[in-house]
Amino acid sequence: MKSRGAKGLTIASAIITYAERSFRDLVRDHSGSGTKSLDSDTSDVRIRQRKLLESIISLLPAEKSVFPINFLCCLLRTAIFLRSSNSCEKELEKRISAILEHVTVEDLLVISFTFDGARLFDLESVRRIISGFVEKEKNVAVFNGGNFREVCSTAMLSVTKIVDAYLGEIAQYDEQHIKIQRNCESRA
């Protein structure tokens, strides 16, 4: 498609459709159902899916804003779950940070779910995404002749509100998890 001059949006559309069909239970489903057969990291199915995902990521068009952020977050979650290569995860993190002003709390929480219904809380990945976004904003401020400490863009304000809400959500979960753990320990 690239060699025939297809636009980035057309290629993105094809990739989204292909990924959703190839990783039906991984990209769309956030409940944890349908993935029980993938318990082992070395299962043939999981290895094939990992290779396929890494191939798809390598085909992504150069334009970073052609994919919806929720799709990219689902792909990152899938990459983490399948234990894809670091370069695959870094590419997805870079793409997410480039358009982070469009993120929702739910998008960030998608990264934090495993496929068995538990929470993953890959805070390191979220931290790298936010750091990439802040670096981008610093570069924009400097390029526009301002001082980053004095300039706070609309995008930055939006992302800070979302990150604050995200941290509130995961703190709530952590607090509930501690209470459940204490109840279990007291019964034992």
From TrEMBL:
This is Root phototropism protein 2.
